[in-house]
């Protein structure tokens, strides 16, 4: 039977004591017991993308906005406006009945959201613009206006009522400027919208001046009391057209009147503002909380930047065409928008600009612009827009507060507006649906005398207020 040999503690420690004595004799350092060093701190997590809250009345102050424009306010134009500094963008006006039975379709590749009717495409948008997008409704019926707003509210941040379009196709149905002389109906629509919309959806209105300042103030008082978040005033009367100078000097009294009401409502000026640099002048004259740009942006969507693009035939047109093609935007509508672009020429020669215009006039589709565009890198161009919007949120791009505003530096950049620009009438109810693969030639579009084409983002748009 095997026996177990027990080893005493002193025997176990003997080797250790021996080597410790050797180290001491040789002058070697003894091992020092230390606590384990704490692990290096973990690198901080990447900050989560800031959550963008819903709009409030304050978001409509100290901004420069893209106005609602027929056809010119298409999705690519809105995206380029946001990229270059527009605080918020208004979509083209849509008649209430037109959107009610639309089918919402999402492109799985680009993310574009289309509202398609039974016979035509009605409206297109993209989630990247939702925090900054105001959807404008043309309506003469509170119930229809509410139904139309509920149809699209998941893809927009606010609903705006058009109360100023002077075109007969709008006024004959009691919409647009016809509401200015029917304040009971106007206010009932706004009241219904505010009552039925969730609080995160703002309700605003866009009007024109009445001939009498006293009547204008009475109307403004009633509108503000409906609970709207902001009021845009186009500083022209119903009978005035774009060629007539906007009477912006009348707005200051209106702004003071609204501020005295104590509701914190923003008053937005619209009329004869050419760009970011010009917005300072307009606000100094009017006292408006914000400024809205129409024809200046139609001419150059980068006008919202303190340094708008020059030589647009080279710096804007190719990029715009690439993005429009990638988003499967209708060629006819794209061609119309590009034909409006104008800007100061610095390095580009007149011959190059003329060649681009001639090529555009003759093009029957995107492929007809190959010589101008070069590589069709639309996906990369679109991703650049997304990065610009996420890196520099448009709602942070604001005019200085009036109390701290400094005189803007004189800009050497000339911002131009297409002379004699007129918005075409909306298409009739019999307009056929245009599939995304269909591209038709509309050569007269460059001349400005073409009939409208029912297309995504412009199908049933009516003229700008």
UniProtKB/TrEMBL annotation:
Chain residue ranges for the region called Disordered: 390-431
Name the InterPro entries on file: Aldolase_TIM, DUS-like_FMN-bd, tRNA-DUS-like, tRNA_hU_synthase_CS
Query: Can you supply one Gene Ontology CC term for this chain's record?
Result: cytoplasm
- Indicate yes or no for the key word Flavoprotein: yes
One biological process term in Gene Ontology: mRNA processing
| Key word Oxidoreductase present | yes
Required cofactor(s): FMN
**Alphabetized UniProt keyword annotations:** Flavoprotein, FMN, mRNA processing, Oxidoreductase, tRNA processing
Q: What is this protein called?
A: DUS-like FMN-binding domain-containing protein
């Amino acid at each position: 039977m095997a026996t177990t040999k027990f080893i005493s503690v002193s025997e176990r420690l003997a080797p250790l004591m021996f080597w410790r004595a050797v180290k001491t004799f040789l002058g070697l350092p003894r091992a020092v017991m230390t606590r384990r060093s704490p692990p290096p701190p973990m690198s901080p997590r990447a900050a989560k993308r800031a959550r963008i809250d819903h709009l409030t009345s304050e978001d409509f102050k100290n901004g420069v906005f893209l106005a609602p424009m027929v056809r010119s306010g298409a999705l690519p134009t809105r995206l380029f406006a946001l990229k270059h500094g527009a605080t918020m963008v208004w979509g083209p006006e849509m008649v209430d009945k037109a959107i009610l039975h639309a089918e919402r379709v999402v492109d799985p590749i680009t993310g574009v959201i289309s509202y398609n009717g039974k016979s035509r495409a009605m409206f297109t948008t993209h989630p990247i613009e939702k925090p900054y997008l105001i959807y404008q409704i043309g309506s003469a019926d509170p119930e229809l206006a509410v139904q139309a707003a509920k149809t699209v509210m998941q893809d927009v941040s606010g609903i705006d009522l058009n109360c100023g379009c002077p075109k007969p196709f709008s006024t004959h149905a009691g919409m647009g400027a016809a509401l200015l002389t029917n304040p009971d109906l106007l206010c009932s629509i706004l009241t219904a919208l505010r009552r039925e919309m969730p609080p995160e959806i703002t309700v605003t209105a866009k009007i024109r001046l009445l001939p009498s300042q006293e009547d204008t103030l009475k109307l403004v008082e009633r509108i503000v009391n409906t609970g709207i978040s902001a009021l845009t005033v186009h500083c022209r009367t119903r009978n005035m057209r774009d060629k007539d100078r906007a009477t912006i000097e009348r707005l200051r009294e209106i702004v003071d009147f609204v501020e005295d009401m104590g509701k914190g409502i923003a008053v937005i000026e619209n009329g004869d503002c050419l760009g970011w640099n010009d917005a300072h002048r307009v606000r100094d004259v009017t006292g408006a909380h914000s400024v809205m740009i129409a024809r200046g942006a139609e001419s150059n969507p980068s006008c919202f930047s303190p340094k708008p693009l020059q030589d647009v035939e080279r710096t804007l047109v190719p990029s715009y065409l690439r993005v429009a093609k990638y988003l499967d935007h209708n060629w006819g509508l794209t061609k119309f928008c590009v034909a409006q672009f104008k800007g100061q020429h610095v390095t580009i020669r007149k011959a190059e600009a003329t060649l681009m215009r001639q090529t555009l006039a003759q093009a029957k589709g995107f492929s007809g612009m190959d010589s101008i565009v070069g590589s069709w890198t639309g996906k990369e161009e679109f991703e650049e827009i997304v990065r610009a919007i996420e890196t520099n949120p448009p709602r942070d791009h604001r005019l200085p507060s009036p109390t701290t505003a400094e005189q803007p530096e004189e800009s050497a950049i000339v911002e131009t507006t297409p002379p004699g620009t007129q918005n075409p009438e909306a298409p009739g109810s019999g307009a056929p649906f245009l599939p995304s693969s269909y591209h038709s030639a509309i050569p007269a579009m460059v001349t400005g005398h073409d009939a409208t084409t029912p297309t995504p983002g412009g199908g049933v748009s009516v003229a700008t207020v």
